[in-house]
Each structure stands twice: as C-alpha cells, then as structure tokens.
Amino acid sequence: MTSLIDVIFLLLLFFMLTSTFSKFSEVPLAAAGSGAVAQASDAKPVFLQLGPDTLRLNGDEIALDALAGSSLAEAEKGTVLLVSLGADVDAQRLTDVLVKLREMPALQVSVLGG
C-alpha cells in the first residue's frame, strides 16, 4: 500500500505542473447612468476603430505600441475618445487597448458595441 506522503507528493506535483502563473490586470469600467449629462467640451471627439489585427485612429492605421506617442498623448483634458469594436474582437484585445489608454488620463474613453 502506498504511503500517504507519496500520494500528497504526487498531488502537489500534479497541481504545480498544471497551474498557470499569469499576471492578470484590472481595467475599471463605468457605465453611464440614465439621464447623465455630458460635459460640454470644445474639443472634437477622437474615433478609435479596433479590429482583431488592426487599430485605426481617426481612419489612420496605427500600431498599439505607438498609441502613447500619437496625437492622443497631447489631447486636452476632457477629450472624448470613442472606441468602436469591430467584428471578432476578443476581450483580451480590448483589454490591451484599454490598458494603453489608461496611461492618458486626459481622455474620457467610451466603448461602443460592435
């Protein structure tokens, strides 16, 4: 009969080899309430189109890494950024973009459904 310590060791080895050690990130999302009044701003809204493999800022294709160095970095406080989701965009792709946009606190990000 196998000793108890051998069974525990095998279970420990199994769980160590099958678990994943991924770092998960939190992205705060807030839904607008009914009857919410939008703040008036003189700045024109910026449009970001998100596809599974593409990213377009006001119609011009841009890389995800170049987003921080684009015109969004110099946007004035309160600038509205509309993120449009294309077909087949997964949650991880959206999260990657939202994490990059979090570095620009002047933007008011709104995600549009696809």
Describe this structure in words.
Pfam families: ExbD. This is Outer membrane transport energization protein ExbD. InterPro entries: ExbD. It comes from Sulfitobacter pontiacus. The chain is of the alpha/beta class. The protein has a domain at 41-114: 2-Layer Sandwich (Nucleotidyltransferase, domain 5). Helix content is 23%, strand content 20%. The chain has two helices and five strands; from the N terminus they run αββββαβ. It has helices spanning 4-18, 91-101, and strands spanning 46-50, 55-57, 60-61, 79-85, 107-112. It has a five-stranded mixed sheet with strand order 3-2-1-4-5, with no helix packed on it. A hairpin with a 2-residue loop joins strand 2 (55-57) and strand 3. It starts with a helix and ends with a strand. The relative contact order is 0.17.
Topology, pairings included?
Layout: H1 4-18, E1 46-50, E2 55-57, E3 60-61, E4 79-85, H2 91-101, E5 107-112
Parallel strand pairs: 1-4, 4-5
Antiparallel strand pairs: 1-2, 2-3
Spell the H/E element sequence: HEEEEHE
Note the quaternary state here. single chain
Give the structural class.
Answer: alpha/beta
Major sheet strand order: 3-2-1-4-5
Based on Cα principal axes, name the global outline.
elongated
Q: What's the helical proportion of residues?
A: 10-25%
Main sheet record: 5 strands, mixed
User: What integer is the average pLDDT?
Assistant: 81
What is the CATH topology of the domain at 41-114?
A: Nucleotidyltransferase, domain 5
Q: How many angstroms does the end-to-end distance come to?
A: 60 Å
How many DSSP helices?
2
Count of strand segments:
5
Q: In what range is the share of β-strand residues?
A: 15-25%
CATH classification, class level of the domain at 41-114: Alpha Beta
Second-tier CATH architecture of the domain at 41-114: 2-Layer Sandwich
- pLDDT < 50 runs, ≥5 residues: none
Question: What's the alpha carbon Rg, rounded to whole Å?
Answer: 22 Å
Keywords: Cell membrane, Membrane, Protein transport, Transmembrane, Transmembrane helix, Transport
Membrane topology: Single-pass membrane protein; Single-pass type II membrane protein
GO molecular function, one term: transmembrane transporter activity
Pfam families: ExbD
